[in-house]
Write a structure and sequence with these properties.
This protein has about 500 residues and is of the alpha/beta class. The protein contains 14 helices and 16 strands. It is globular, with a radius of gyration of 26 Å.
Length: about 500
């Protein structure tokens, strides 16, 4: 259970709004509630770890809102129709293309990759959220299109297009003049403006898609941008509190979504952020990979499963994300991930020592711990400064003279925001053990015992022989390891 900060008013929650480019106090639309929409994945393939950073960030935001006492409603949509191979609204439909490649139905493709995505969310300890599918809202999308068509849209042979000149301040979120983006925007004959985008795409004559519906503009499928507007309005109501996504959405997808929201509600400008559909727009920065394996076109791209296969616990990746501010670029490397795993091991060992000696107290009343809870609250309230919050957690663990039950309660409260599962995670789960290694742990432990016995008998030749055998099997014996792990399997 989340332990509230000692004084919720001491540190008002401040969040960076991408629309205004300013840090602003969070004031809920509905008293006591927080309604959040996060752009979800297009489920045509596995998600890479760069994609997953967005959901660690969104989950941390949601946990912080709960820490501050708000009742949270959080939606992460599932795009199972409408997203083309370019975010700039061009190319083939991603779902249709993957279905043809794998010889399966688009519906089966969507179901398989959605289940994999949700499995990764659980591995990263992302709290359960609503995951509506775009295909469940096609009827509502058509009705939205009808409501906007006369004033804001025009029809071409290829479909219904939104005229961005019909709403005020188009592109303010991206801070770009519309024409500057011509190179990234689809070239369609007849478009009035380079940035105009599809509300509905007609199925070309002579073709049949697996996912298509009848509409006033012909049989076809909705444009990608429309689904988020419709689901946000239907599930959260306009205006809702916060809309999140990766920084790549800030340039095209979210400006188009905002234009649709303005058309649905009003055509007023964005000096009042509520006209955008959400009061606050938040974006996490990129995960940078110097190896070039972040792209899904690279073959064996960096999936969470690949990290697990190499022996890393997925929460080491979550901790790696939390060690950087969500608005900063974060570089991925195996060394950085290993460092995060080592830090997680230290945290788990420290908490385990407390758990072995005490049960968590029902509340925290020690002055020093109350001060640290206040410091933690100030950190996460400062635009989700999780890096600083982690240092406060470290300091709480270091308070050796304070009752263990009190410390456990404080640490459990902090971890309710950080989501590292410190109150349940066992150190044995964090041992670096790649799946490709065939030797089992029982065999390793048995050999280590034999080696210890040999060393105790001063039979160093036997001790060295056992060590050499383990090394040949990929096991590093860590004599004198300060963490007390004794061995690890090398990546």
């Amino acid at each position: 259970m989340t332990q509230p900060a000692p004084d919720p008013q001491a540190a008002p929650l401040m969040l960076f709004n991408s629309l205004t480019r300013a840090v602003e106090p969070f004031t809920p639309v509905h008293a006591g509630e927080a309604r959040v929409y996060s752009c979800g994945p297009t489920v045509y393939n596995y998600q890479h770890i760069g994609n997953m950073r967005a959901y660690v960030f969104a989950d941390t935001l949601g946990r912080t809102l709960q820490w501050k006492g708000y009742k949270l409603t959080h939606v992460i949509n599932i795009t199972d129709v409408g997203h083309l191979t370019s975010d700039a609204d061009e190319g083939e439909d991603k779902m249709e293309r993957m279905a043809a490649r794998e010889g399966k139905s688009a519906w089966d493709i969507a179901r398989f990759y959605q289940e994999d995505f949700e499995r990764d969310l659980a591995r990263l300890n992302v709290q359960p959220k609503q995951h509506p599918r775009a295909t469940e809202f096609v009827g509502a999308m058509i009705e939205w299109g009808k409501s906007m068509a006369d004033k804001h849209c025009y029809e071409l042979d290829s479909g219904l297009y939104f005229d961005v000149s019909t709403v005020a301040d188009y592109g303010r979120l991206a801070r770009a003049v519309t024409e500057d983006g011509e190179g990234r925007i689809e070239s369609v004959e007849g478009k009035r403006n380079a940035a105009d985008f599809a509300i509905w795409r007609k199925t070309p004559p002579g073709e049949t898609r697996q996912m298509e519906w009848d509409s006033p503009w012909g049989r076809g499928a909705p444009g990608w941008h429309l689904e988020c507007s419709v689901m946000g309005e239907k599930l959260l109501g306009f205006p809702f509190d916060i809309h999140t996504g990766g920084i790549d959405h800030r340039e095209i997808h979210h400006p188009n979504e905002i234009a649709q929201n303005q058309a649905f509600c009003c055509t007023n400008g964005l000096d009042d952020p509520r006209n955008s559909g959400a009061k606050i727009w938040m974006h996490n920065n990129f995960l940078i990979d110097r190896t070039g394996k972040m792209s899904k076109s690279s073959g064996e791209f960096l999936r969470l499963q690949l990290l697990i296969d190499k022996g890393f616990h997925p929460l080491a990746y979550r901790l790696m994300c939390l060690q950087a501010h969500y608005r900063s670029e974060l570089e991925f490397s195996w060394d950085n991930l290993l460092a995060a795993l080592t830090r997680l091991k230290r945290l788990v060992m420290a908490v385990a020592a407390l758990r072995s000696g005490a049960r968590a107290a029902q509340s925290v009343d020690h002055p020093r711990l109350l001060q640290l809870l206040g410091d933690f609250d100030a950190a996460v309230s400062d635009d989700l400064n999780t890096a600083k919050a982690l240092t406060v957690l470290d300091e709480a663990l270091a308070q050796k003279k304070i009752d263990a039950g009190q410390r456990l309660a404080a640490i459990g409260a902090m971890d309710a925001v950080l989501g590292l599962d410190l109150m349940a995670l066992e150190r044995s789960a964090l041992r670096l053990r790649p799946v490709a290694i065939e030797i089992d742990e029982a065999r390793i432990e048995h050999m280590l015992k034999l080696r210890k016995d040999a060393r105790a008998d001063k039979n160093f030749a036997a001790s060295d022989a056992i060590r050499d055998e383990l090394t040949a099997a990929g096991v590093e014996v860590m004599d004198g390891d300060p963490l007390g792990w004794e061995w690890r399997i090398e990546v």
